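Quick question about two entries, pasted in order.
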Amino acid sequence: VQSTKKQNFGKTFLMEGRGSYTLPTGTEYRGELKDGLFHGEGVLLFPGGGRYQAVWHRGVPAEVPGAGRDPRDGLEYEDEKWHYCDGYDRRFYTEICSGLKPAGISQLTNLDPPRKIPAGCYDCGDGFYNPETRIVIDYKLRFLRNAGSHAWSERI
């Protein structure tokens, strides 16, 4: 499927059948489509590697195979009763599994021990951003990408 709509002699045709569609965010849908909507079996593939598989009905997930497990890490969850890091319980997952640290010893991230961030850098989720060089290196300190302009960091 190449596009959401086609004009042909005043008529609009919507996506139908089986195909793939890449959203502006980079997320890709692969599966069945009807009247331009996700309809039938299909999967959303996220740029960061996550996936969301469902049976869709008019663009809304109706059945989710494997519901109750996050496909990225296999952790159990409930859509309605989320028990992880909510307004009442702010513990990290590792603290839930392994217990809290003694008084006076803080755990500032889910990683224990936390990552050592190089001086002058920021942890950006997939590596470290250095505003001086405008380069992102991965957690093993290998080149990952050029970050371009860092105007966003000056607004923080």
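Here is the second entry:
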Amino acid sequence: MAGVKKKPQLPKSVLDMKFMKKTKERLERELEDTQDHGSLYSNIITNAMRSASGNYVTEASFIFCENLMEGRLSFKGMNPEIERLMEQEKLKEIPSGEMQKDIPDDILAKKFQAFNKRKRDSSTPSKYTMVKKKKSH
């Protein structure tokens, strides 16, 4: 097994030359970044997490995927446009068995009463209604 290859480094005397200032600064920044990166998650990542392998569960069926949410998601205002779309999708979902009301109950009751009143009025004969007589043979 071969060891980890290190990037060849320029000698300090070359880096101290005037035309190499930018390169020296860049190399110093890269070194700081790599040190910061290691310490950034050191308190979160445990040795067990580093050495773990094969943390996968396989399922033969797709049943577990049926009720998963599709598409892009956003939480806590990170992407307001996506959250607005998520709200619209929630409003579209109507529970089965219930219907949305197009007309409020009170307006519907008034219309129904007016309809019944007109129907009753037309069923009573008036002096202008013509009565059809059946022809007898």
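Reply: Residues 89 and 95 are 13 Å apart (CA to CA). Helices lie at 12-15, 21-40, 47-51, 80-92, 105-123. Hope that helps.
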